[in-house]
Amino acid sequence: MTSIPPDSIDPTEAIRDRALAVGFDVVGFAPAELGSDARNRLSEFVSNGYHGDMGWLSDRMKQRSQPTDLWPEAKTVIVVGLNYGPDEDPLEIHEKPERGAISVYARGRDYHDVSKKKLRILARYIADNFEGDVKLFVDTAPVMEKPLAAKAGLGWQGKHTNLVSKTNGSWLFLGEIYTTLRLETNEEENNKCGNCSQCISACPTDAFLAPYQLDARRCISYLTIEHKGHIPGEFREAIGNRIYGCDDCLAVCPWNKFAVKTNEPELDARLELRWPRLDDLVQLDNAAFRSVFSGSPVKRLGRNRFLRNVLVAIGNSRSEEFIPHAKAKLEDESPLVRAMAVWALSRLAPAEEFGKIAKRHATKEADPDVLREWRTASKSRETVPAL
Fold it and tell me: Are the C-beta atoms of residues 386 and 378 closer than 8 Å to each other?
């Protein structure tokens, strides 16, 4: 490739044009620094324990809250956004309890792969044509993406703490290139939420303690993706048929009126992940799970946690047609799966039938958490003997 003499072209505009040419939908430039507000919000979030199992948020807080602590030589952060807007209302599937709701972002190819491929092309262009070093990130390093995107003018953090864009609504994947180049930066986007609080009202589990304050431990996306243990009983009914993530607070944002469907074919929803049937999903073994979700971010969840989520959705379906599938999972090797099978059956099976199932299976159970599910269920069903 022929290098472009640095003094013959505006590097900021050239990089912007190249980012759009490789397929990003928006691009902005921010200084490699974050103010005290972002740092204080992160510190408060972690000190209150709102991050739950996400230990990676607390492990490298210093580097996360200040770009130059991650890379002291960084001068500018190039923030890019890739539109993943859906072609349908993500909330429609909640009217079909026999099917599982997978978050819009996870229905196509893993965005890490899609974005990183484009970022590498952009980073190589910068390294080849300008006198500056680069490091690229796609949600895999201690980088506060949303505050940086706001500083780069891509949008603002809404009351649900996610980025909101004037042109793409709620549907933007973010990526960053840190560089030693001093580039012209954008003005930070002003918050335009106004008096609207639809995202807060839409949350099924009341995860927002106040505007801009999220307790992730109550968030369905956290519970179904990040949380490694049993889903607390207080949240199971509210989860409904959401088996991987939740789009409710994003989907109701009025700024989505400007959103459009993604132009990236790899981010289009795969047919089998758009409205999958719960009775198909609950029967997946490890090999089938890996095959169905190959290339999808869902694969990283693992079969056991995924089936945990599916069984919660089955319990919420109120359909007795799922009873045989839930019964079969009482013999599963995973305690996560067996425990949610107990809960699902306690919701679906008539009391007398559930009592018979309990007599056959509960006495053989050795895992304390699964036994606790049996005991909790037995107290709620009069025909079930105390266990």
Answer: yes
Query: Using an 8 Å Cβ cutoff, are 65 and 38 in contact?
Result: yes
Residue range 268-283, pLDDT digits in tens: 999 999 999 999 999 9
Mean pLDDT taken over the chain: 93
> Is 81 a residue whose pLDDT tops 90?
yes
Bridge partners, residue 101, by sequence:
242
Contacting residues for 149 by C-beta, under 8 A, at least 6 apart: 28, 79, 81, 155, 163, 172, 174
What is the rounded (10 degree) CA torsion for 309, 312, 316, 322? 100
pLDDT at 139: 81
Helical pair 11-21 and 111-129, crossing angle rounded to 10 deg: 150
User: What Cα–Cα distance (Å) separates residue 387 from each residue in 329, 346, 365, 372?
Assistant: 20, 14, 11, 9
Helices 351-361 & 368-380 angle (0-180, nearest 10): 150
Using CA atoms, how far residue 51 sits from 61, 196, 304, 311, 340, in Å, is 12, 25, 22, 25, 24
Beta-sheet pairing, 76-83 with 242-244: unpaired
Contact 288, 306 (CB under 8 A): no
> Do 254 and 198 touch, CB atoms closer than 8 A?
yes
Average pLDDT over residues 85-107: 97
139 annotated active-site: yes
On whether the CB atoms of residues 95 and 272 are closer than 8 A, the answer is no
Tokens of 278: 């719960």
Instruction: Give me the pLDDT at residue 51, please.
Output: 85
Q: Which pLDDT score, from 0 to 100, does residue 381 have?
A: 67
Give 305-321 pLDDT, tens digit per residue.
999 999 999 999 999 99
Catalytic residue among 53, 69, 133, 139: 139
Token pair for 370? 């699964």
Q: Which two tokens stand for residue 77?
A: 């952060």
Q: Which residues contact 215 (CB under 8 A, 6 or more apart)?
A: 48, 50, 207, 208, 209
Q: What is the pTM of this model?
A: 0.93
pLDDT of residue 387: 52
Distance CA 349, CA 372 (A): 18
- Per-residue pLDDT at 211 exceeds 90: yes
The Cα–Cα gap between 184 and 350 comes to 67
